[in-house]
Amino acid sequence: MTKEEISQLVEEGKMLPLMEEFYTIQGEGYHKGTAAYFIRIGGCDVGCHWCDVKESWDAEKHPPTATERIVSEAVKYSKTIVVTGGEPLTWDMTLLTQMLKAEGAQTHIETSGAYTLTGKWDWICLSPKKLKLPTKEVYEKANELKVIIFNKHDLKFAEEQAAKVNKDCILYLQPEWSVRDKVVPLIVDFVMANPQWKVSLQTHKYLNIP
């Protein structure tokens, strides 16, 4: 298969730049503590300086993999499938989610929301970033809003983002791991003063699992 043919298949969502896939415990947000199979798709140009998977940014480093193979592997392990990145919405997620739904899977996505929302999702975790804000559609459809807190100003950003999501969206503040000792007290005080928010912790890191 030529490079051009592969690029066309990726464009159509028939292949995706797969960085890694693994079965583990969801560590964050509403579904924390539950078993799930993660599909990490390469490619992201949002560019968060504190990103803990910067190796996902360059899609060229991750082999285009047949979407059918990704799905057949995933459903061997779990009916809860979390698609993450990188930024998965860099790519067309329509075929991936169609195939997963055909296998009876629950489809979850973790996204910055910066690109067009493609695919059919049972759960959308929106984690907006200042450099590229989410689309109007993903604000309207998000099931949970998860704002990463790196400094005090991020709390203001969180309030701005909360004003844009739908009324049923669950609101989470999550300390950025490298500065958690500094920002956890800020988050605790904020949530106590604003109880519509909840705290999300990266419990998988405390459990020392992927």
Automatic annotation (TrEMBL):
S-adenosyl-L-methionine binds at W50, C51, D52, G86, S127, P128, K129. Its cofactor is S-adenosyl-L-methionine; Mg(2+); [4Fe-4S] cluster. It holds the Pfam family Radical_SAM. One of its GO terms (molecular function) is magnesium ion binding. Keywords: 4Fe-4S, Iron, Iron-sulfur, Lyase, Magnesium, Metal-binding, Queuosine biosynthesis, S-adenosyl-L-methionine. Binds 1 S-adenosyl-L-methionine per subunit. Binds 1 [4Fe-4S] cluster. The cluster is coordinated with 3 cysteines and an exchangeable S-adenosyl-L-methionine. It comes from the Bacteria. The keyword Magnesium applies. SUPFAM superfamilies: Radical SAM enzymes (SSF102114). Pathway: Purine metabolism; 7-cyano-7-deazaguanine biosynthesis. InterPro entries: 7-CO-7-deazaguanine_synth-like, Aldolase_TIM, rSAM, rSAM_sf. The keyword Ion transport does not apply. Residues 31-210 form the Radical SAM core domain. It catalyses: 6-carboxy-5,6,7,8-tetrahydropterin + H(+) = 7-carboxy-7-carbaguanine + NH4(+). Catalyzes the complex heterocyclic radical-mediated conversion of 6-carboxy-5,6,7,8-tetrahydropterin (CPH4) to 7-carboxy-7-deazaguanine (CDG), a step common to the biosynthetic pathways of all 7-deazapurine-containing compounds. HAMAP family: QueE. Belongs to the radical SAM superfamily. 7-carboxy-7-deazaguanine synthase family. Homodimer. This is 7-carboxy-7-deazaguanine synthase. The lineage of its organism: Bacteria, Pseudomonadati, Bacteroidota, Flavobacteriia, Flavobacteriales.
